[in-house]
Amino acid sequence: MSKITVIGTGYVGLVTGACFADLGNTVMCLDIDQKRIDGLHKGIMPIYEPGLEEIVERAYRAKRIDFTTDYAAALQSAEYVFIAVGTPSGENGEADMQYVEKAVKKIAETIDHSFILVDKSTVPVGTGDWAAKILQERFAETEIKFSIVSNPEFLKEGTAINDFMRPDRIVLGSNNRAASEKIAELYESLRCPILITDIRTAEMIKYASNAFLAAKISFINEIANICERVGANVVDVAKGMGLDSRIGPKFLNAGIGWGGSCFPKDVKALVHIAQEFGTQPQLLQAVIEINKYQRKHVVQKFEEIFGDIKGKRIGILGLAFKPDTDDIRESPAVDIIKYLTQKGAIISAYDPAAMELSKLVLPKEVSLYENPYQVVEGTDALLLATEWNEFKQLDFEKIHQLMHGNVILDGRNLWDPQSLTDLGFRYYGIGLGQYK
Ligand code: UDX
């Protein structure tokens, strides 16, 4: 079994560390945030991720995982050093590389033996070569040997453990094939396809994959908007398209747009990379624009329904950017609430996990409640923004009684239009020609 160090205890870092420990390796996780590390020693997870706590606890009890803020302690006997720190969006959409740079420099300063550096952070193409230069300069006069491998992460929030343990593929990119093969051994027990490429190609695969998925969603959202005009049903259109094995059924759910910690920043970063290298990525720019438009489209729909929405009471179910997470980064719900309040609508909202974080970003006048039924009381309209399981089977008779009006805008096409119409609601979906 191997000795692995993971730098960064965010989504990618902690899941990677915990899962490698679960597979039998000895893992040291480092973070510069002392509070995070203290919390982890006490079993407090810094992120909301189903199943993570159990895995971390199990590995901690078995002494296969530990946490530190001290680089020297973290790197002491590391064979493999994974970098999994954040690369947030900078001012112009570029990836902000300060955390990756600091991590590489700290490793260069501290480590005193040969190792393989593995990058899991999503980084601009060329970062691996940049890191190689830094390490080369540092170790030129020493016996220390190193290699760099790019190993992009494709995990999704909410299903991260399963995504790690049952990946569709592992991508390993390096200018030293033997190093990639060493890292491949760490994943051998997962029995999945392993693609070995050069380092720049691996870095590009991550951006291209996320951009493609975002494009797929923006595509179906554009089709949805056309369906609304021409009287077609986008859910069935997506089904019909998805049965073509060249297209596939996944990521074709029309809705109020994509958000989260990855798609928005990665598509913007790819646009930035393309422009930096002198090419105009027209499709990628359209993918971003359609996504911005989709949030405004929801507000337009309310305006079409009500005329003026000033003074209208709208209840919102869901604030997280998707179900099973408390993450509200780039969440469509948050933007839509901001637009609606700017236009004078009165907003009440509920989310099963994201209320605490939402308080920090929502306009002060938004009222947050403890359950869906409190949210809808006295409202003119109800908007479903995030398709949490707990919203699938609500008591709509009760909701009908509690509401003042009868408008439902189902932003994720979660509910059955006919049964809600039968109950007396005016039901609107996304891209549902008859329910527009
Ligand atoms: C994504 C990628 O899927 C993952 O591979 C990468 O490592 C990180 O970014 P994540 O951000 O966790 O993962 O969320 P994901 O489940 O991909 O959803 C992204 C957004 O797209 C959400 O806002 C979701 O609501 C939206 N979405 C997804 C749709 O609107 N329609 C769909 O059909 C699928």
Commentary on this structure:
- It is a single chain.
- The protein has 436 residues and is of the alpha/beta class.
- The protein has 2 domains: 195 residues, Rossmann fold; 218 residues, NAD(P)-binding Rossmann-like Domain (Rossmann fold, 3-Layer(aba) Sandwich).
- The chain is 44% helix and 14% strand.
- The chain contains 17 helices and 14 strands.
- The chain has an 8-stranded mixed sheet, with helices on both faces. Strands 11-10-9-12-13-14 form a 6-stranded parallel sheet.
- Helix 6 links the parallel strand 5 and strand 6.
- Helix 1 crosses helix 3 and helix 9 runs parallel beside helix 12.
- The mean pLDDT is 97.
- The structure holds uridine-5'-diphosphate-xylopyranose.
- The site of uridine-5'-diphosphate-xylopyranose has 20 residues, from helix 9.
In short, what is this structure?
This protein is α/β, with parallel strands linked by helices and 436 residues long.
Helices and strands in order, then pairings?
Layout: E1 3-7, H1 11-22, E2 26-30, H2 34-41, H3 52-61, E3 65-68, H4 71-75, E4 80-83, H5 98-110, E5 115-119, H6 127-139, E6 146-150, H7 160-165, E7 170-174, H8 177-187, E8 194-197, H9 199-230, H10 234-242, H11 263-276, H12 282-306, E9 313-317, H13 332-342, E10 346-350, H14 355-359, E11 367-368, H15 372-376, E12 381-384, H16 396-402, E13 407-410, H17 417-422, E14 426-428
Parallel strand pairs: 1-2, 1-4, 2-3, 4-5, 5-6, 7-8, 9-10, 9-12, 10-11, 12-13, 13-14
Antiparallel strand pairs: 6-7
Bound molecules: uridine-5'-diphosphate-xylopyranose.
Uridine-5'-diphosphate-xylopyranose binds at residues 153-157, 210, 213, 217, 251-253, 255, 258-263, 321-322.
